[in-house]
Every structure is written in C-alpha cells, then in structure tokens.
Write a structure and sequence with these properties.
DNA-binding; 12 strands; Rossmann fold; elongated; 13 helices; 15% strand; six-stranded mixed sheet; homodimer; alpha/beta; 3 domains
DNA sequence: CTGAAAGCGCTTACAG
DNA sequence: CTGAAAGCGCTTACAG
C-alpha cells in the first residue's frame, strides 16, 4: 500500500485536484469558504493519497507549537533526578491530559536558576506554556517568569505575593487531618518529618501545630525534623534522629517515601508500626496501599491535580483567565496509624 | 534589562552588524568560512541584544526537529495509564539522557495499533526517532515500522525475527537467578507469577524452568499463574490463586509490584515472608529496598537501560549502525527471600 | 571571505 | 467561491 513515506505535499495535492494550494489548505481546514463539493473531493483525494499535513510547517507559519513544557522542580543537589514517585505520577497524569487535549509534552528538569536563563531554553521558547511541578526555592523567579508573555501554571503552595497561577492541595488541611487522626488514635507525643523551609511542608507544619493545639497537647521542638524529599539524605537524617531514642508515639511525614523510610528504620530498631508508633504519609502514591503495613496517608489526588493544571494552562494559552485552585485533601486511613 | 521578548531576529542582527543574514547565520554557527573578527563582532552583538535563534525556523529549514518520541507500551485495557513505577523510572532515565544529548522528549502513550496508523501521529512525524518502552503484543507492527525511514529502538526481549534494534535485560538469566536463589534458600515448591504470553515473562519462565531442572525439582503447572503487570487484575488473580491454598514455599514474580501485591496477600492470610514463603521481585524499582520486608529482586539496571536506549537511537539517527544490546541482570538479595 | 537568492510547507489578507 | 502572492525565520549552494 503506502510506502510510509509522505510522498504527497500540499502542492501535489493541489495539482491532483486541479486547484490552488490555497484551496487545498482551506479544504483541509474545513473552511466554509470553499465549495462543499470541491472540499469533499479534496478531502477524499487527501485520504486516498495518504496525505498528512506537515505540522512543523503549519506551526512555524502560525507561530504555534502545540507543545507544553513540563519542568520538574527537582532538588538540584540530589543525585537521582526523575525518580520520586510523586513527581512521576504527576507526570503521568499531566501527560495523559495533554494527550487528550492534542498537545505534546516537552519534558525538562533543568533546575531553573533564573527567569532570564530559563527564557532562553527550548522548554520556554518552543512551548506555548509551561507547567512547573513544584516551586522549589525559586518563587521569585517564577513571579518574574509569569510577567513574561508565556503562560505558566505552578504546582505548589499559594504564597501571598504569587503572580502566577498556582494549583495545589490544601496543605494546611492535609497536615491538620493527619495529625488529628494520630491524636484520635490515642497518640500524644508526635514528631513532624518535613522541611519547613519549603512552602508546602511549611503549611503542613502549620496544620500540624493547629491540631496539636486543638488536642491540647504539647509539642517538643526537638521532634521537628527537617527531612528532605530526597531519599538518601532523608534516610541518614532519620537514622540519626531515631538513634537519639526520641520519646514519640507518632510521626507525621511529608511524603509517602519519607513515611516508608521511617517505618523501615523503626522496624530495624525493633519498633512495630502501628503498635509502638503510628506513622502517616503524604501523597497517596500508587503503591501506598500495598506497603506493609499499608500506609495511612493524605491523598493529594494527583490525577485530578495534573488534569486541573493542564486545564488551567490551556485556559491561559487560549486567552481565558485562570484562577488558582486548591484541591481538598482526603485522609486515607490504612494500617500504619491505628494501634490494635 | 531585557523585556524577555526576543525583539531581535537574524535580519535585525544583520542590519546592526552591517552584514548579510548569510553571514550572521554562518557566524552564529561558528562556520570557518567567516572572518574571525567579523564572527566575534557578530557573536558579541548577538549576546548583547539577547538574540536567540528561532529553533523552530531552523529545524523547519533543515527538516529536523531534535525531538525524540517515547512511546510507553501500556496495556490499553488497564485503567491507570502511566503509573507503573518501572515505566516511570525508565522514563526518568530516558528523559535525563535525552536532555544531556540536547534532544527533547515527546511523550506519548497512544497504544500503538498498527504501524500505518502510528506513522500518521505527531509522535512519529515530529520526531527524529522513537523509543518504545515495551513490545506489548505488537511485535509485527514494530517490525513494519522499523522498515520505514524513522529509526526506532525498542525495550524488550530479543525475538528471533526482530527487524528493529532491541535493548533489554537478560530475562532468561534473571528468571534463572531468582529461581536458583530460592532453591539455595531451601525452597522446593515454587510458583511463577507472570504472563508468559508476553515476550519478557516468557524468557523469565524459561530461566525459571531451567533452574528447576538444575535443582532436580518438580514443577506443578498449576503453580504457574499468568499475572498481568496491571495491578488491579493482578491482585484479583493472586487472591483467587491463594484462596486455593497452594502448597508452595516460594514465588518468583515478574515485577516488584507483583511481588509486593503477593506479599500483602500472603500477610493477609497469616503467612509470613520470608519465613513461611520466599518471594522475589523483578526490576529493582527505587523503593524495593525500603519495602517491608525489603525486596529480593532482579535488578534490570533501569538507568543504564534508558541511557543505552538513547545512545543507540542517536546512533541510528546520525546514520551509524546500532546493534542490539542485552544488559546483564543482577540478583539483589534482601529480606523477602531467605528464611531465618 | 561575503552576499543575493532560493526555498523548507504551510496560511491568509487581498483581489477578483 | 478561488487564486496569486507574500511571508513565517532560518540555511546553504552558487556566484563573486
């Protein structure tokens, strides 16, 4: 049948149809300008000859790309780059939504340094908009970037002076819910594992403290541990902390991976979860339900999140306004929190 | 400073430098044709005016894209699309390697149906080459595709009549190693969890049987379970199987996710891993070491795999030959296999 | 060493 | 309803 090679270009189609390129172009775009019969004839001819429009040429001509860039804001210090399950699942969701919308995704995890530098990258120039997954420590640069001509949407925490569209889950609510749940489980001496220098953990810690207050408990600042999301350093830090034999009976963690690491370290010290210590995670990554014990965690509804980010960005690209959006979190109670 | 908008195009740069566009183009490409001083002057001017070459125009002119498409061959029946940790980690590795090589990645998980259809997609037309992660059940279509003008590299199992470049790990070795390890651990009644209708599990099963033979053991065909990679169906199938109270003391699984599911189901039936039953996984996904118990598994060296796939594809794109490559697997012994 | 010219494959304002 | 023409921003064979 076909050679696979697109032998046909628009000019050749025009020759075959005995019309001009203009008419072919219009016919294929289903323009009302062109006569119905002519249109049909051309479309039939195109199908017959297996014509495929050269999108690169079209996009070049129209100065469009139909490409959205996705930037994973991964801590540049960490070695493994794109391997955090949360990022990867978010990526999957974004990819699915973009495909559904007929956009392609350009993936990049160049750690963004400055807005000016980023504007020179292909991720910026070749795309119609950019999705940032995470704010990292470059909130100000994102603000500058948002002032440019290319729309951006950011996954993260609402920060007071945000000039950009932020989508995020309700981190305060998430932190509060996990903490209150542990208190409901009878826990009284809680620890918080997460780095409050980052926007989202900061809000979760806020919620944590509120729940502590609401429960009329005390919180010993020594039990706040600035655990990073990156696994290797997280593990070391948790080990060192547990070696001090802290008097705790519950841990609120800022990611499922942190919770998992904590549980493993606790087990290695002969402490059982949840009977000796309760642990909650954050994110509800795909395998959270299949861990041993299954993880009680705060669901960030990652798939919804990706979809909403894409929707908002397409709104901006097409000139519609886009407001921030905060997704509700839900606490998913599984086996790691309530002692038997 | 800069407005962020690229005010300058090549013509304007030419006007500023009082030379022709031709010369500017050559100067920026560092062509030896152009006078060294002129070149410097133009390059300085370009920097000063924050000129950035319009890559879309350049690529269009050169009929190149600097884009590589990645197609995840995900079972179209499954609901969650891009969420398998193995796929996602492979994706991360590929993305990293492509970025290093100055290529962008176009992600797509349109389940490929036929080569002819695929040739019409953007993933095909807009890219300089395609990476398929997995062969799915479309080996023949991949063969047809490989006959076309666009280079492809496929992650999977070497199949006799492969016309395409295949990168994969040594599945027979992997299956053999995991099985022999369980036998070394004193296990005598083994089960195999994986769908032999797929190329890779088929080879792993091969290795499994060889190890059984080498150990002079018997294998009851009832203990081969065609567990799919998709989690939901996998879980159901494993539940049904375990409900029959099979007389087994070890399970060789075709993925870490399958192993994890098996362990959880075993635990729910009061069976302890590894004391009652030993379990091995496959892939060595990032969190395999942090599961409870930590998973004994076959490392497929995913990061090397992604890097090698990219290398081979770039070879093909640049006209160099590319041979198949089989990565050695390594058995990583952790807590899920050897009874105490 | 440099420039004028052609052309990559399309779309669309303009004229008819 | 249709076509001739211009042009998107580059690169390079050709001529000088």
């Amino acid at each position: 049948m076909s050679t696979g090679k697109s032998v046909v270009d628009m000019q050749q189609l025009a020759d075959l149809a005995q019309v001009s390129r203009s008419t072919v172009s219009r016919a294929l775009a289903d323009s009302p300008l062109v006569n119905a019969k002519t249109k049909q004839r051309i479309q039939a001819l195109a199908a017959e000859h297996n014509y495929v429009l050269n999108e690169a040429a079209r996009n070049f001509r129209l100065k469009k790309t139909r490409i959205v860039s996705v930037v994973l804001m991964i801590d540049p210090d960490s070695e493994q780059r794109t391997s955090d399950p949360f990022f990867l699942e978010m990526l999957g969701s974004i990819a699915d939504s973009l495909v559904d919308a007929g956009y392609d995704m350009l993936l990049s995890h160049t750690a963004i340094q400055t807005a000016a530098e980023f504007r020179k990258t292909r991720a910026y120039r070749q795309s119609e908009g950019i999705l940032f997954v995470g704010q990292g420590k470059v909130h100000d640069e994102l603000n500058m970037l948002a002032a440019g001509e290319r729309p951006i949407v950011v996954w993260g925490a609402e920060i007071d002076d945000s000039q950009y569209c932020v989508i995020g889950s309700d981190n305060r609510q998430g932190g509060f819910g996990a903490t209150r749940h542990l208190i409901d489980c009878g826990r009284r001496s809680l620890a918080f594992f997460g780095d409050r220098r980052l926007p989202e953990p900061r809000l979760r810690f806020d919620g944590f403290l509120r729940a502590i207050d609401a429960g009329a408990l005390n919180f010993d600042a020594a039990n706040e541990l600035a655990v990073p999301f990156e696994h290797q350093r997280a593990e070391t830090m948790i080990q060192n902390y547990l070696d001090t034999n802290p008097a705790i009976d519950g841990i609120v963690c800022c990611s499922d991976v942190i919770a998992l690491t904590a549980i493993t370290q606790l087990n290695q010290r002969g402490l059982r979860v949840p009977d000796d210590i309760s642990v909650t995670g954050y994110d509800n990554i795909g395998i959270a339900s299949r861990l041993n014990p299954p993880l009680t965690t705060v669901d960030q509804h990652i798939r919804d999140a990706g979809r909403i980010m894409v929707e908002r960005l397409l709104d901006l690209i097409e000139g519609r306004p886009a407001s921030n959006h905060t997704l509700d979190t839900s606490l998913v109670e599984r086996g790691s929190s309530r002692p038997s």
